[in-house]
Structure formats: structure tokens, C-alpha cells
Write a sequence for this structure.
């Protein structure tokens, strides 16, 4: 009897697991980043506003719940998933609907991992019930609500997934064309997958224009559209000022449009106007870490890229103190900010020792290979530009290349090494040998 019981218990365990595997939710979408990337994503997602009326609020909470689960905070995960269900209720103005399939799927997984198989099974049954009650309009396709959530999630998770995300959005929109925010995110995803700084095609520009007309409240989209118009040589000052006025009135969020607006100002108007804008925003919200991050970025641009005149000491002080604050406010996403700070110091006559100290600290810290590669690369450039230590610079480019991780840093370092070799430097034999023995990742 006991024997039979345990076989059937094992069988039901297997069938539970295969049912879980078949769910559409964050746990089955191959979102499996390293710990350090997860921690950075967590901080990034915290900066997406959670103000009432955000039509992605349910998706935001589902995503944050999943990240908390991955980081080992199961209670937080549960509370985020509950918040997601509540947000969907308000936004969709209904107690249930196909938008809960992903949420219930996440809960089924969470309870399974917590060892509560009965509760897990209960959520699986809820998913089944929803799928039966709200079948997809297209037989061999997922429900458009699921495609849309999957698309949005992939877009938020990684830059590389933007093309796949656009495809999912397209399917969702084909089946359910009346969701304004899907159209908006779709075109933003398309724009985001166009290579940085390149102009988008006329066809996409037109798509953006139409989406903007349909979704006039979305300032993030409006600013991105403005950026494209500026790229096409249109004058944009007037419109930018108008948008700035609106952005400043809205709640702080990484999708409020402020960051792309600062970029538009600094590229096409002037970096000082960008700085005035972010300082004004900070006056209204002095404790918002996201705004401090944006401000640090503006000051970095001013000091590092706009070197028409020597920045005055008060600008430098502000830049340094903002960077230090931001590094403390983002305990997991500070790497690039530390490098920025080192680069700011390096620009100053008296800052060489500080720059060197920051780099030494980073070089000695325990980093994942991809991060290590970035630090080596930045240090190689630093040695070349500010220390004129060409030999060590070459050594660091070699360290970059030796890490078997495909990235633009690796590509740049290998290209640099080849150039130095071809120029016939005294190290060209050594470089040649190094390149010959290099393993492809
Ligand atoms: C979304 O885009 C589709 C396809 O381009 C279009 O048919 C539909 O009208 C748009 N929906 C809204 C609400 O703008």
C-alpha cells in the first residue's frame, strides 16, 4: 500500500513539474542572468515609477516579484505577485481575465519552490480555468495578453532581446489592435533595436509618429520621436521646451522621458540647458536617486565630452559629489559610475592619484568575467590617454582579449592590438604571438 502510494505521489510530482514547465510565465521564459546582472536589473526596475495609471504596473510588479524570487527573497516575491494581481484588477477594471495567466503561473511556480504543492496545484487549476474561459483568438498562438507581457518583459530584461520582443508585440497587436500601450512599446522596441545613434528608416519614423498621435500622454515616446526629428535636421528647441515643461510636472520615473530629453538637449541644443533642466528637476525632488543619476550623467558629458573650455571648479565639485552619491545609492550598479568618476578625476591636473586609486580598487575587486573585461578595457584606455604608458596599455588590452566573453570591449581591444602590431611597435612580435594563440570564445 505504502509502496503504491509513493509511486503515485512520485508520478503526480512529475506531472506537476511538467505542467509547470508548460506554463507561460517568468519562470519559463529563459530569464536566467548572472547574480550581478540580476542585482543591477533589480535597481533598474526599482526606478521604473509605480504611479497610479501606469498601464504596465501589473507587468512591473510581476517582473520585480520574479527578480526578488531569483535573489532569494520569496516573501517579497509573493507580495509583488499579489500587487501585480491587484494592479491588473484596477487597470483592466475587472476581477479576472487572460492577463492573470502569467501572474498565476508565477504563483504556481513560487508555491512549488516553497514546497506547498497543493497551493501550486491550485494555481495550475486557475491557469487552466482562465485558458478555457479566454482562449486565444488565434488557434496556434498564445493569447495576445501573454505575448504582450512576454514582449514587455524581454525588452526590459535585455537589449539583445529587443528583436524577439518586437515580434511578440506584433503578434499581440495583430490579434488585439486596440491596446494603445502595446503599439507604443512596439515602436519603442523597434527604435531601440536600431543601432545606437543611427537614423531610423522613414517607415519606422512614420510608425513612431502614428503611435505618438494615438498615445499623446506618453512623453517618453514623444521625446524619442523628437530625437529622431532632430537627427533628421529639424529644429526642435521649441518642442523640447514644451516637453520639458510637461516632463517636470509628471512623477519621477525612468520612463518619464527626462533622460532621453537630457540627451536631446545635450546633442542638439546645449549641455548647459540640459544641466539647468536636471537641476530644476532636482530642486522639486531632491531625494530621487534616479534624478541624481541623470544629473551625474549630464555633468560627466560636460566635463568629458564638451571640452571647449575648462569647466570651472564648481562644476567639477558638483560632478564629483553627484558621482559619489550615486555610487552609494546604487550599491549594485556602481561599476560604470566609478569608472566615470575615475575618468573625471583623470581630466583634472590634480586628479591622477584619485583616478589610479579607483582603478586599482576595481582591478582588485571580485568581478564576473564580463565586468572584469570592461574594467580592463577602460583601464587600458586610461593608461594610454592619461598616463602615456603604452606598454601597460597593451598588456591590459591583452587581458581584455584573453577573457573568453564576446563583447564590444573584446572586439575593440583585439582591433587595437592588431593596429599596434601593424604599425610595427617594438612589441609587435609579442602581440602577434598573443593573437595567434587567442582562443575564440
Ligand atoms: C496599433 O497598430 C495597429 C497596426 O499598425 C493599428 O491597426 C491599430 O489601429 C493601432 N491601435 C491603436 C490603438 O493605435
Amino acid at each position: 500500500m505504502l509502496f503504491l502510494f509513493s509511486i503515485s505521489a512520485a508520478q503526480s510530482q512529475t506531472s506537476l513539474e511538467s505542467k509547470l514547465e508548460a506554463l507561460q510565465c517568468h519562470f519559463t521564459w529563459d530569464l536566467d542572468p548572472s547574480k550581478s546582472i540580476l542585482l543591477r536589473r533589480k535597481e533598474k526596475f526599482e526606478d521604473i515609477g509605480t504611479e497610479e495609471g501606469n498601464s504596465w504596473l501589473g507587468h512591473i510588479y510581476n517582473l520585480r516579484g520574479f527578480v526578488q524570487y531569483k535573489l532569494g527573497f520569496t516573501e517579497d516575491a509573493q507580495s509583488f505577485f499579489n500587487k501585480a494581481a491587484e494592479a491588473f484588477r484596477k487597470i483592466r477594471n475587472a476581477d479576472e481575465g487572460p492577463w492573470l495567466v502569467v501572474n498565476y503561473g508565477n504563483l504556481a511556480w513560487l508555491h512549488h519552490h516553497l514546497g506547498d504543492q497543493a497551493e501550486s496545484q491550485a494555481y495550475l487549476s486557475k491557469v487552466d480555468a482562465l485558458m478555457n474561459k479566454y482562449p486565444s483568438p488565434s488557434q496556434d498562438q498564445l493569447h495576445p495578453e501573454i505575448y504582450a507581457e512576454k514582449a514587455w518583459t524581454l525588452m526590459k530584461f535585455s537589449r539583445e532581446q529587443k528583436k524577439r520582443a518586437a515580434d511578440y508585440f506584433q503578434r499581440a497587436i495583430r490579434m488585439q489592435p486596440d491596446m494603445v500601450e502595446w503599439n507604443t512599446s512596439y515602436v519603442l522596441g523597434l527604435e531601440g533595436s536600431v543601432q545606437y545613434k543611427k537614423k531610423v528608416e522613414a517607415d519606422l519614423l512614420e510608425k513612431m509618429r502614428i503611435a505618438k498621435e494615438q498615445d499623446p500622454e506618453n512623453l517618453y515616446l514623444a521625446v524619442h520621436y523628437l530625437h529622431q526629428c532632430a537627427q533628421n535636421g529639424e529644429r526642435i528647441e521649441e518642442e523640447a521646451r514644451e516637453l520639458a515643461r510637461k516632463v517636470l510636472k509628471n512623477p519621477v520615473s525612468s520612463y518619464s522621458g527626462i533622460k532621453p530629453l537630457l540627451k536631446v538637449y545635450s546633442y542638439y541644443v546645449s549641455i548647459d540647458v540640459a544641466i539647468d533642466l536636471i537641476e530644476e528637476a532636482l530642486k522639486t525632488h531632491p531625494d530621487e536617486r534616479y534624478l541624481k543619476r541623470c544629473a551625474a550623467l549630464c555633468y560627466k558629458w560636460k566635463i568629458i565630452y564638451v571640452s571647449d573650455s575648462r569647466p570651472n571648479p564648481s562644476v567639477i565639485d558638483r560632478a564629483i559629489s553627484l558621482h559619489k552619491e550615486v555610487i552609494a545609492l546604487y550599491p549594485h550598479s556602481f561599476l560604470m559610475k566609478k569608472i566615470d568618476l575615475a575618468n573625471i578625476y583623470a581630466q583634472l591636473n590634480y586628479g591622477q592619484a584619485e583616478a589610479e586609486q579607483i582603478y586599482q580598487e576595481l582591478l582588485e575587486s571580485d568581478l564576473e568575467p564580463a565586468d572584469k573585461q570592461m574594467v580592463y578595457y577602460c583601464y587600458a584606455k586610461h593608461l594610454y590617454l592619461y598616463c602615456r604608458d603604452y606598454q601597460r596599455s597593451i598588456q591590459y588590452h591583452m587581458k581584455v582579449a584573453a577573457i573568453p566573453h564576446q563583447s564590444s570591449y573584446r572586439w575593440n581591444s583585439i582591433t587595437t592590438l592588431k593596429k599596434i602590431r601593424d604599425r610595427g611597435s617594438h612589441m609587435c612580435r609579442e602581440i602577434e604571438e598573443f593573437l595567434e594563440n587567442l582562443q575564440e570564445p
